[in-house]
Design brief:
With about 575 residues, the protein is an all-alpha fold.
């Protein structure tokens, strides 16, 4: 094998990977948002999850991309580990479509797809047309790369050392599996590594059994992408990567044993046209072996989906609550930042954490006031600092998303999200001011509030807490129901604020109350009204910026459950 052959081999691999990535990325851009919606809605059982995983991965042609989606959704609390298990199994089946396409050997017309794709990208009549043009271009480049690799590897036949190593792979299953695993880890694409195996097997450099061992290793190696995506996620999300790995490792043990015994090779040869042992239709035999490995492995493992989840949970324990520092982001995974839709969901999850801290601050300050206990206020400076820190980190994350994405729906959403994050941070600042005002009224100080004033404060405080709770729920579900409820509450708080303010001013003028306590109460009312304003701004921005499907009947039922407060 000459240096030119090596360069051509690497060049063909580069074209294949580039084409594969272009096709997969643009398929995700066209269908990714809908895919996520389906993942969230139709995965309540492992069986349904399998079919969803097959469909999604069959469309976007990347089991790694599906795994990354899953990790993001589990990390955001949108999906459970049990829901993800079936999708992982289905994704492994869906990704075999690429190998089946490769086996059709349409390399002779590959350049036709390249030409069509290039023409489409030059026209650019719409963003959708551009995505489809790049899909066609990527598809063509994939086969061009295969053709180049096929020509290059023919030189290996002239190398006695290379030929001896490759032909002996069938006799050394474990090294062959490890080789497939490591190679796929390096290139992070099982479709590409399986494609290369098909090329080598088709040229007669690798015996059929050796090709199968490499393919089994390829399936294990593809889990590296999920592990990389899980580096910045919580332990629950990392369990998805563990399930993916366990599924492929257990499957490899079973089917490598069957291959070593000769049963699996005979089975594949019996269901595929041509005699693979005579060198006939080798590429299709390898493609079918890849597909049936994942199909049969799913059938075997599906009844044990719950057990796989338990094993993964045992290996990767639950996140200890005390290991998460107050104010440290829990959901901003930079490994998912290229998936802009998922990154947005992560940011919204962090906004919910900010709101929970605002609520905690309001409750602690009020409990200190009611219970006449300064000690409850000790956490409040830390809480306000935590809110500020989350604002900075979430803003930085969204700016990074904005720099990486060219998706117009995402770009248009980010300004509203940034404004909403600032509104939550301002609500945190107002909470600190509420604490200062109430602190003045702890009876250890002068001028304690009258029972009447305490009742006024209590009523308004309870409504702002309810508004905060509804805002947290809104960020989770983003249904119009919550928007209407929050805006209605804000209007009632405004009315209470105006009425109570006028009443207190009148009482001060008539010397019916302590003036210092009365003015402090007015300050408290003002701060609570401003918090309510910021919460209203949050849902108004969300209503304007997001689009979600919802069921009117479901919302009516939710309204009954929430009631009127």
């Amino acid at each position: 094998m000459t240096w030119l052959d090596i360069v051509n081999l690497l060049g063909g691999l580069a074209l294949f990977l580039f084409g594969m990535n272009k096709m997969s990325d643009n398929l995700q851009a066209v269908a990714g948002n809908e895919m996520r919606r389906i993942l969230k809605k139709i995965t309540n059982t492992p069986f349904k999850g399998v079919w969803v995983g097959i469909g999604i991965t069959g469309i976007i042609q990347s089991s790694s991309a599906t795994s990354v989606m899953l990790i993001g959704l589990v990390n955001a609390g949108i999906m459970t580990l049990q829901q993800a298990v079936g999708v992982v199994m289905g994704a492994n089946i869906g990704t075999t479509v690429t190998a089946q396409l490769i086996a059709f050997n349409i390399g002779d017309v590959a350049f036709a797809f390249v030409v069509i794709g290039v023409i489409g990208t030059f026209l650019k009549r719409s963003r959708t047309m551009e995505h489809w043009s790049l899909i066609v271009l990527g598809f063509g480049l994939l086969f061009v790369g295969l053709n180049v690799m096929s020509s290059a590897v023919s030189g290996l036949k002239d190398s006695e050392t290379a030929a001896r190593i490759l032909t002996n792979l069938a006799d050394y299953p474990i090294p062959a599996i490890l080789a497939g695993t490591v190679f796929t880890m390096l290139i992070q694409s099982s479709s590409a590594s399986v494609g290369i195996v098909m090329v080598l097997a088709n040229t007669g450099l690798i015996p059929f059994e050796g090709a199968l061992y490499l393919v089994f290793g390829d399936n294990i190696g593809t889990t590296i992408t999920a592990w990389l995506a899980g580096l910045g996620a919580n332990n629950t999300a990392r369990r998805v990567a563990m399930v993916h790995t366990l599924f492929n490792v257990f499957g490899t043990i079973i089917f490598a044993t069957l291959t070593w015994l000769g049963y699996y090779t005979i089975f594949i040869n019996s269901i595929t046209p041509g005699n693979v042992f005579a060198g006939e239709n080798v590429a299709r035999h390898v493609a079918n072996a890849h597909t049936f490995f994942n199909v049969l492995n799913t059938l075997v493992m599906l009844p044990f989906a719950g057990l796989l989840a338990k094993i993964a949970s045992r290996i990767i324990p639950k996140d200890p609550e005390d290991t998460i520092s107050l104010g440290e982001p829990k959901h901003l995974n930079y490994h998912l930042i290229n998936d802009s839709y998922l990154a947005i969901e992560q940011s919204i999850k962090e906004m919910r954490e900010m709101l929970r801290l605002v609520r905690l601050g309001l409750m602690l300050s009020y409990d200190a006031f009611k219970e006449k206990d300064y000690r409850k206020q000790a956490k409040l400076p830390r809480i306000e600092a935590a809110i500020d820190h989350l604002q900075k980190e979430t803003t930085r994350y969204l700016v990074a998303v904005n720099e990486r994405t060219n998706a117009i729906p995402i770009i248009s959403r980010i300004p509203a999200l940034l404004h909403s994050i600032n509104d939550i941070e301002k609500a945190g600042d107002f909470t600190e001011e509420v604490n200062r005002i109430l602190n003045l009224q702890i009876p250890a100080q002068k001028n304690p509030l009258s029972t009447e004033f305490v009742s006024m404060i209590d009523d308004l405080h309870s409504k702002v807490i309810l508004m905060t709770d509804l805002s947290i729920d809104y960020l989770e579900e983003r249904k119009p129901l919550y928007t209407f409820k929050i805006i209605e509450l804000e209007g009632r708080i405004n009315e209470m604020h105006y009425s109570l303010r006028e009443k207190i001013l009148h009482m001060i003028q008539e010397a019916q109350c302590d003036p210092v306590g009365g003015l402090n109460t007015i300050d408290f009312l003002d701060e609570m009204e401003m918090i309510a304003d910021k919460l209203k701004n949050l849902v108004k921005a969300g209503t304007h910026d997001f689009t979600y499907n919802y069921d009117n009947n479901e919302d009516q039922q939710d309204t009954k459950e929430l009631g009127t407060n």
